[in-house]
Every structure is written in C-alpha cells, then in structure tokens.
Design a protein that fits this description.
Blueprint lengths: L6 H17 L2 H8 L7 H11 L17 H13 L6 H15 L2 H13 L4 E4 L5 H4 L20 E5 L6 E11 L6 E8 L6 E8 L5 E5 L9 E13 L9 H40 L1 E2 L2 E2 L4 H26 L4 H22 L1 H4 L6 H15 L2 H12 L3 H8 L7 H6 L11
Parallel strand pairs: 1-4
Antiparallel strand pairs: 2-3, 3-7, 4-5, 5-7, 6-7, 8-9
Helix pairs in contact: 1-4, 4-8, 4-9, 5-6, 5-8, 8-9, 8-10, 8-12, 9-10, 10-12, 10-13
C-alpha cells in the first residue's frame, strides 16, 4: 500500500489553503456566521466553481469530480483549520451519499448535479438529538425507533391516498444548516406498529407546512435549525420495496456515518493543529520575567504533549480516510485531541485567552459542539469496541460454566505458582 498523497491531492490541499488563508481569518469567520445563511455565499460559490468542493466525492456521470471519500476528508482538514462555516458537511458528507445509495435513477440525475456544483445545498433532518444514533456512530436500535417509533414525537409519515405521495408531520430540533438548505432529507417513521420502519423523504424549500427557524447554538460555525413539519408533502427517497425499505435505509445511514466520521475526524484534526500552531506562535512572542514564556520548560512539556496527541489523531484520521470502517475510533481520537488543544490554547494565552471574544474560544466551542453532536468520545469508542467484538470473547468465557476436570488430570496438574508445596 502506498500511503503517500497523490499530486492531485496535494494540489487540492495547497489551493484550498491559499484561498481560505485569504478569505477566512477569524474576523471574516465571525462576520460570515452572523449572516442570514450562516456562511459566506460568495466564497462557497468560488470553492464550488474553482475546486468542485461539494462534488469531490460525486461520480463524474453526475457532474462531480469523481474522487473518493479520502479526498473529501483531506479537503475538510483544510476547512477545519479555519473553522470554515459552510454547507459542505451537511451536503457532501451526509446527504449526497444517501441520495447516491438510495435514490432512483431519476432522483440521482435530478439532484446530484445541482448538489455537486454548489447550486443547491441539502440538510439531513433527524428527530431529536439523535444524529449520532441515526448514523450508527454511538450504537442504537436496529429498527430506527429514534425516528418516532410509532408514538408521539419524532417525525411521522403517512401515505397520501388522495393525492399520492406522502405527508410528514413532526419536528426535528437540531438540523445542521437546516435553516438555509434548499433540500431537506427527512428521516421519518412509517407503518405504525404493524410495519414499523424508518424511511427517508425529500422535502423542498418552500413546501406548504414547512417551518424552519435558526437556533441559538454554542458553535456558530455549525448553524442548526428547528424544522417543523405540519402535514408537509414529501417524496420518498428511492422506490417502495427497494430503496424505500427501512432495513436498507438504516444500512445506508450506517454506511454514511462511517464515511462522515472519517471526514469529521480529518476536520477536527485540522482544527486541533491550527489551535496548537496559534498557541506556539503566541508563547514565542509573549514575554514574562524578561523572556518568552515558550522558553519555560513546563510550557514546552505541555505543548509537546499536545503535539504528540494531534499527530496521533492525524495518523488515525488519514487511516480512516483510507478505511472508513475505522472512522469511529479516529473521530474519538480527533475530538479528544481538539478538546485538549483548544483547552491548552485558552490556558497558555493567559488572561486574554479567558475572554469570550478571543479566537481560541472558536476552537473550544467547535470541540464542545462536535462532541455533543457526534459523541461523546467514550460512546464512540465503546461502539467501535462492540462492532469489533473486542470484549465478546472475554464476556462469553466469564459467563460459561467451568469445564469438568477428570480426577487424573487434577492429580497431574501442577499447583498454582502462589501456593507453597510441602516437601
């Protein structure tokens, strides 16, 4: 296996870093998140036209660049450095793979070219704080009860016998970029108790009965919306009996979660690396007792520990980009590294670092928000361990009754090492 980056990948990263370096300073990021859309639309169109950023992992047949999830992850490492507020995660990492996996030929042809060109953005609406569960990042039920479970709450879907199609009613409270997306991909519960299943539906901007409101959130670079569906007409993603079956939907969501976790890990590593770099630059300039505080051994040790943690997380993120099945563990390590790097940035910036307006808090808020949305870290690791069967053999051995021992074997067996033998 050749782990080196290709010339095309290096060029994408270099070009993206140059553009973002000019357009995404801390002041520009703060200004962008306070716009109605929550991001710089002009910059988004530039990234879409010049680099094909939202279509990196989309096949060329649908207007994309034709690269793979690894290229998207590498690009997101650069966007993570500057905490770029954009619809990239919701559109390219969450919705595009689901439409590709479950959509009919007509749906893919109608939606993917617009999504890959940046002409349209999309958002995945999952009921309640269940995004990590829906994407199978932290475990969950096998029948999708998080979508509504046939009871009150969540989002319910019913067939519209009069006009054909489907009708949705319910609410999703934490939808990434849900206030500005032209297309919503809504996970809803259908079939009641008799045929309980989770399906995905397409809801267009401006649909009657659709109410969206932007929420006040900790991390403004990850805008979220409350989406209310009041008997909203919707189109089933896929075909009933094919992509429309609940089992296929849950499988597609889990596969999307594995790819998205690798992308999120790379993004978190980029943010952690930048937080560390800014802290190193500060301690080189800040003087105390007539010398730079970066020359103090205690400060060096703390930054060295952060550096080792960030580099280990970067290696894990790159491996997950190549093998998305390792995305959960890589995401856990990357989120932990980001939390540590952001925390040390605040501490080592001293009194100015504790002010809420300081740039270090942008990274601290991103670390806290991502862990709330996609974690927590210990659950990511526990789920990865369960999937790998890490503790299953030990648990089975502990639960199994002891094997019978014959008298001859008992006599022949040597005494335990801790016991004294009389001679």
């Amino acid at each position: 296996m050749d782990a080196a980056f290709t010339a095309e990948q290096d060029e994408i990263r270099r070009t993206l870093r140059e553009i973002l370096g000019r357009r995404c300073g801390p002041d520009e990021v703060k200004a962008a998140v306070r716009t109605a859309g929550g991001y710089d639309r002009e910059l988004w169109q530039q990234l879409s036209r010049q680099l094909g950023l939202p279509g990196i992992a989309v096949a060329e047949d649908y207007g994309g660049v034709g690269c793979g999830p690894a290229d998207l992850a590498l690009a997101c490492e650069e966007t993570g450095r500057v905490l770029l507020p954009s619809p990239l995660l919701a559109t390219a990492a969450l919705c595009v793979p689901l439409i590709t996996a479950l959509g009919t030929g007509a749906q893919r042809s109608a939606l993917l070219p617009s999504l890959s060109s940046g002409g349209m953005t999309a958002a995945l609406a999952v009921p309640g704080p269940a995004l990590a569960t829906a994407l199978a990042l932290t475990g969950g039920d096998a029948v999708g009860q998080w979508s509504g479970g046939g009871r009150a709450g969540g989002v319910q879907a019913r067939a519209d016998e009069a006009g054909g199609g489907w009708r949705l009613y319910g609410e999703a409270a934490q939808v990434l970029d849900g206030h500005s997306a032209e297309l919503l991909l809504v996970a809803a519960h259908a079939g009641g108790f008799a045929r309980s299943r989770t399906l995905l539906f397409l809801v267009r901007e401006g649909a009657p009965g659709l109410v969206r409101s932007r929420q006040a959130v900790l991390d403004e670079t990850r805008p979220q919306a409350r989406v209310q569906l009041r008997d909203v007409p919707a189109e089933l993603l896929g075909e009933q009996g094919a992509g429309g079956e609940g089992a296929d939907v849950l499988t597609a969501l889990a596969a999307t979660g594995r790819t998205a976790s690798a992308v999120l890990a790379a993004e978190a590593v980029g943010a952690a690396g930048e937080a560390l770099a800014r802290t190193v630059e500060y301690v080189r300039r800040r003087e105390q007792f007539g010398r730079a505080i970066g020359s103090f051994q205690a400060v060096k040790h703390r930054l060295a520990d952060v550096y080792v943690q960030v580099q280990a997380a970067r290696s894990a993120a790159y491996y997950a980009a190549w093998d998305p099945d390792q995305g959960g563990l890589a995401l856990a390590q990357a989120l932990e590294a980001l939390r540590t790097a952001a925390g040390e940035a605040i501490q080592l910036h001293g009194g100015i670092g504790f002010t809420w307006e300081h740039d270090a808090h942008l990274y601290f808020k991103r670390a806290a928000s991502d862990e709330l949305l996609f974690g927590p870290v210990h659950r990511l690791r526990a789920h990865a361990a369960d999937r790998a069967g890490l503790f299953a053999p030990a648990a089975a051995a502990a639960a199994a009754p002891p094997a019978p021992v014959s008298p001859a074997a008992a006599v022949a067996a040597p005494p335990p090492a801790h016991e004294k033998v009389a001679v």
